[in-house]
Amino acid sequence: MSDDLPLPDLEAQPPGGPTEDNSGPKTADDLEAVFDVPVSVSAVLGRTKLEVGELMNMRPGTVLELDRRVGEAIDIYVNDRLVARGEVVLVEEKLGVTMTEIIKSER
């Protein structure tokens, strides 16, 4: 008796018959089903550690030293997963973020 399992037929059609031709380039329209799914996006400028007493003594104007330098890339998280790095930009008197590097996830 062999312990080898047969490999699936990758050319076989899924149950219910043939599907659309997926050989062309993907577009935003292909993701339309998930457009309304809410996600949490965070842009992390830097981090620091404080004791609760230090936090309680902070007042408006207090400078908080972070672990990043000016001009260094910031981390962009979607649902607490790092997805990109980017830069802070000014857009019509508001702060924004532009992505400069997409991080490929290891699944």
Automatic annotation (TrEMBL):
Record domain Flagellar motor switch protein FliN-like C-terminal: where: 33-103
Record InterPro entries: FliN, FliN-like_C, FliN/MopA/SpaO, FliN_T3SS_HrcQb, SpoA-like_sf
Start and end residues of each stretch annotated as Disordered: 1-29
Lineage: superkingdom: Bacteria
Gene Ontology BP annotations: bacterial-type flagellum-dependent cell motility; chemotaxis
Keywords per UniProt: Bacterial flagellum, Cell membrane, Cell projection, Chemotaxis, Cilium, Flagellar rotation, Flagellum, Membrane
Database matches in Pfam families: FliMN_C (PF01052)
Broad class of where this protein is predominantly found: membrane
Membrane topology of this protein: Peripheral membrane protein
Protein localization: Cell membrane; Bacterial flagellum basal body
GO CC annotations, alphabetized: bacterial-type flagellum basal body; plasma membrane
One example GO MF annotation: cytoskeletal motor activity
Similarity-based family: Belongs to the FliN/MopA/SpaO family.
Function: FliN is one of three proteins (FliG, FliN, FliM) that form the rotor-mounted switch complex (C ring), located at the base of the basal body. This complex interacts with the CheY and CheZ chemotaxis proteins, in addition to contacting components of the motor that determine the direction of flagellar rotation.
Name assigned to this protein: Flagellar motor switch protein FliN
UniProt organism field: Terrihabitans soli
Gene that this sequence comes from: fliN
